[in-house]
Amino acid sequence: MMSNSSNFSAAGAEEGKKCIVNDQMRPFIVLYILILTVGLPGNLLSAWAFVRCCKAKEKRSAGVYLLNLLVANLLFLGALPFKVLKDLGAAPWSLMVFHCQCSAVVTYISLYASVAFLTFIIVDRHLQDRHSAHSLRLQEPSFAWLLCTVVWLLLLVIMVPNMALPTKQVQVQRYLSCTSLKEELGLSWHTLTVFLNTALFLNASAAVLVSSSLALKHLLRSRSAAARRTLVSVTLMALAYVLSFVPYHAVRTPYTLAQTQVIRDCRTRRQLFLGKEATLVLSVLHVCLDPLLFFHLDPAFRGVIQDLLPCTTHCKAAADMRLRTRRNTQEDQEEGGDSSQL
């Protein structure tokens, strides 16, 4: 008993010497569980609806981007339980290491794929109102698939080395920091990955800014209802993009400096970690709202979902009945007029 107690005290003292930044995760865990509870059913239903209307997806570039955004969401939702278990401290050591090497990387692949596809959707929504030959070429489904393929390949090239590079053995600990597993080469690649992803985000943000500005400029020249609807749609999506991703990237770079020991003050490192986690939650909230985006932007998807609603089906049947009654009444009136003339 004395030996076990002394070993535990020694382990606690050793852990106390380190700067532990991830020991206050419970509020984030609750939020992640809520995101999983709300987001998983919505995105699974969306996947089913996309399968049902897959033929329609071949005709519109927006459908291609929405489908790839859905794939990114499902990747994130598949990786999220591993993060929850690690942050709870309920995962065995091997699962914690697996999260650091694999599921955490999948999380960030999903995050930046979402950044890219949301940007494409915003730009595509703006181009729908341009009607120029150049914009029509950019809206071809084949071009959309090419863009999406390039995004996935680029992210895999950037991120997969974080899974493949060798790791070092560390002592089993309750609060595992994933960077503590990395060799010097792995830590350098991780830092490079962060800056490359930030560059991707900055380019995407520039495209969102330009599209929003051009949509506003076009509205000032046009008073049509269609132009106004397009502007409202682009503006709302751009606002959601800014609120979701800008705070995270404002914190991400200084947090990376803390990970690489450029920032050594423990209090500052803790604050940066908590800021990174809080803004990461904000960044992934979109997985709960994206099914609404699918419903709003894709008529075929909307039709499949509406067919599931009994009220919608009843209202549609009632509308069809009223239309048939109106047509029958008009035909009776026409026949009555013809007979009176005779």
UniProtKB/TrEMBL annotation:
Gene Ontology terms for molecular function: G protein-coupled receptor activity
Pfam family, one: 7tm_1
Major location (coarse): membrane
Segments passing through the bilayer: 29-51, 63-85, 105-123, 143-165, 185-210, 231-251
Localization of this protein: Cell membrane
Membrane topology field: Multi-pass membrane protein
Keywords: Cell membrane, G-protein coupled receptor, Membrane, Receptor, Transducer, Transmembrane, Transmembrane helix
Keyword Translocase: no
Residue span, G-protein coupled receptors family 1 profile domain: 42-294
UniProt cross-references to Gene3D superfamilies, sorted A to Z: Rhodopsin 7-helix transmembrane proteins
GO cellular component assignments: plasma membrane
Protein name: G protein-coupled receptor 171
